[in-house]
Amino acid sequence: xxxxxxxxxxxxxxxxxxxxxxxxxxxxxxxxxxxxxxxxxxxxxxxxxxxxxxxxxxxxxxxxxxxxxxxxxxxxxxxxxxxxxxxxxxxxxxxxxxxxxxxxxxxxxxxxxxxxxxxxxxxxxxxxxxxxxxxxxxxxxxxxxxxxxxxxxxxxxxxxxxxxxxxxxxxxxxxxxxxxxxxxxxxxxxxxxxxxxxxxxxxxxxxxxxxxxxxxxxxxxxxxxxxxxxxxxxxxxxxxxxxxxxxxxxxxxxxxxxxxxxxxxxxxxxxxxxxxxxxxxxxxxxxxxxxxxxxxxxxxxxxxxxxxxxxxxxxxxxxx
Length: 320
Ligand SMILES: C[S@@+](CC[C@H](N)C(=O)[O-])C[C@H]1O[C@@H](n2cnc3c(N)ncnc32)[C@H](O)[C@@H]1O
Description:
Strand content: 5-15%
Bound molecules: S-adenosylmethionine
């Protein structure tokens, strides 16, 4: 198992674990789909909550599936794993012979298994090929390949939209100039150093590394993290049995906004402009929102796990 940890130090701590389990209520038993299995921390807590609870764990990262499957093997047939993108939850459940679920969880972003493994190229703390694919065994485009292909304008837009980085144009210019000199960016350190030089000295109010936002933006783009997220939430709600629970943990405002707005619409709140004669946003009363405000980690959790700092948990119950 140590080898599967990818050389990381501390194992991944499931974020907002107690709060998520309270909202998902696995004590009711039934099928729980963990759409982002990761290292299986949330799944393990679900399986522990009731002997009647079963878990179908989905992950697009084969290494995570291997790790979690080994960890959850003691639960026997109560745990099954599927290698897929969670956007395909409907066919995955169908293939597993499941029509509906008592609970569905999605805990977005990357796990420590991915982030702390130097060779995965997610972090500027290590020098490694700039990869960033969650499914490292796929033939999808890596971050380095993306930076070599996109135009300067496309790179700037990507860094601005997904990283909310004000200095995106300047960073894109530096990346393309370097590429035109015949030195495309190949490694995490090359990118981190270039961004740091492009944006100049940090302001005293900035507490994050200058490349943080650019790395986040690239990761989101490489893995298409926002594509179809709203549609996924809608599909997940449709797959819940009456009274079933949906819970989503997000780590940046772009994801949280999509989840919040989709849940609102599915709770019947119309999002159309006030003067629209008819509703065209698809609002319907399918769920009751359980978290009027997102649940965020308390001080104790933040002290133990600073990576939880931007986590937000939202949950809903399917109406009868
Ligand atoms: C934050 S981790 C989940 C950690 C997990 N809850 C635990 O307790 O160990 C997110 C996981 O979701 C996976 N993931 C992210 N987006 C995905 C997607 N669209 N489809 C399937 N898996 C995805 C990542 O590969 C990663 O393993």
